[in-house]
Structure formats: structure tokens, C-alpha cells
Amino acid sequence: RAKLAWNDCLELYQNTISHLNRSKSTNSPLDAQTWLSAAIANHQTCQNGFIDFNLASHLQTLPPMLANFSKLISNSLAINKPTISVTAKQVGNRRLFAHGFPTWLSGADRKLLQKIGAPLNADIVVAQDGSGNFKTISEAVAAAGGAKRTVIHVKAGVYNENVDIQRSARNIMLIGDGIGATVVTGNKNAQTTTTFRTATFAVVGDGFIARDITFENTAGPQKHQAVALRSGSDFSVFYRCSFEGYQDTLYVYSQRQFYRDCDIYGTVDFIFGDTVAVFQN
């Protein structure tokens, strides 16, 4: 179990290094605040993995510099915060367009989201019957590029797989055939791994968009934490999706996220995380 927690920390601190480097190079105080906050979330999640397994003693082996990590980042956030208020006054405080979508969502992406039916010009098609480019979502994601928007059409079917979209896989758009038609399912739970790793579908790569898909974790209420979807993707959008589970269904992990016309089912803490998110309709 300690190895599971250490593996989480390795990925989380690699992502943290990226967040800190971006924070130093940006001219946007709001971006810096977002990425610094994500860095703290990563640090805390690393520690939580050991605490959940009653292995807190392992935290003593972390490098001494990490002992004051949260305090240093908190100080940076406090110093940066006043500049956000000044910037907001200069550019206006509007975050949503009149049509209800975030101002950071491009017109082209909005049209794809609102397009009726499946995209005829999808870059990649996933179909279990072999009529597409791949039979699994994970294979399609691995084949997607990271610079331009990649549209992946996932045809109707129940996809029993754990999908993990890493930081390098950016600008992926996943379009299903509708809630209940395209289903991604899994049953990982906190009895066998960390809460962070229980997600049926996890995404870190920025600019992720999903439409018309069901994400579910079928572990059941007796298995405690069992995440259906975890998003740490900055500027991620979920439109007409369903998230189904029991405890800890939707892990809005970090950064900026937008949910519209979605169904979210759960019991205890069924929406949780450290993100800045809008839930609409």
C-alpha cells in the first residue's frame, strides 16, 4: 500500500513542478493563483494517500524542503491575490457569455458542443464492434495529439476500462452517443487503492471536453470512496454528461472547470475537490 501512495506522490509532484514553472512565467495573476492552488492540492493529496492507509510515518521520509511547502505556496497565494482584484476591475468581472458558456471556451469548441448528433468529422472513432479506429477509449487517447483539438467520437456501448489522461494529452474532446448510451464504467475503490486512484475516468491534460457520456463507478456503498470521474484539467468542460456512484462520485480535483446540463448521483461527499467550478442547469 505504501507503494501505491508513493506512486501518487511521484505523479503529483511532477505535475506540481509544471504548475510552479507556469506560475513563474505567466503575466496573468488569475492563472498564477489557479496553478499555485493546484500545487497545494497536489501536496495535500500526496499526504492523504499515506494517511488513508494509516501510514503517516512514511511522511517523515519526505525531503525536508517539503515540510514548509504548503506555507511557502500559501504565502505566494496571499501576495498574488491583491493583483487579481486589480486585474478584474480593469477587464471586467464577467466570466460567462450571454449563452451561458465560459468566456474561455472558444467559439469553435462551443459549436462542437452544441452540434446535434455525433460529429461526422471526428478525428478518431471508438467502437466496440470494430467499426472505428479503436475498440477502447484508452487506445484512442494514446493516439491523440497534444497541440490541436482532437475530437474523439465514442460510439454507444459499455466501456469497462479505467481511463487515465495524463498532463501531456491536452485538448481532447470526447463525444458520446448520449447519457446511458455511451458508458464508461469501473469499480475501483478505497479498500484496494488510494481515493485518488479509484477514478473510473481521470483527466489531467488541459482543455478536456466531454459531451453525452455516462461515467460511473459501481463499487457500491459498502466500498466507501469510489470515484466515477476525477478532473484536474484546467479549462475542462462537461456537457450533457452523467456521473454515477455512491461516495465521492465526482472529484473536481483542481483548476478551472465547467459543468452544464449534467446529472450527478451519489451519497456522501458526492461532489468534492479543490477546483474552481461552475455547475449550471
From TrEMBL:
Catalytic activity: [(1->4)-alpha-D-galacturonosyl methyl ester](n) + n H2O = [(1->4)-alpha-D-galacturonosyl](n) + n methanol + n H(+)
Alphabetical list of SUPFAM superfamilies matching this protein: Pectin lyase-like (SSF51126), Plant invertase/pectin methylesterase inhibitor (SSF101148)
Biological process annotations from GO: cell wall modification; pectin catabolic process
Residues annotated as the enzyme's active site: D269
EC id: 3.1.1.11
Superkingdom, natural source: Eukaryota
Pfam families assigned: Pectinesterase, PMEI
InterPro entries the UniProt entry points to: Invertase/methylesterase_inhib, Pectin_lyas_fold, Pectin_lyase_fold/virulence, Pectinesterase_Asp_AS, Pectinesterase_cat, Pectinesterase_inhib_dom, Pectinesterase_Tyr_AS
GO molecular function: enzyme inhibitor activity; pectinesterase activity
Domain Pectinesterase catalytic: 123-281
Keywords from the UniProt entry: Aspartyl esterase, Cell wall, Cell wall biogenesis/degradation, Hydrolase, Secreted
Main location: secreted
RNA-binding in keyword set: no
Localization per record: Secreted, Cell wall
Domain (Pectinesterase inhibitor) ranges: 4-79
Pathway field: Glycan metabolism; pectin degradation; 2-dehydro-3-deoxy-D-gluconate from pectin: step 1/5
Function of the molecule: Acts in the modification of cell walls via demethylesterification of cell wall pectin.
Family, as annotated: In the C-terminal section; belongs to the pectinesterase family. In the N-terminal section; belongs to the PMEI family.
Name of this chain's protein: Pectinesterase
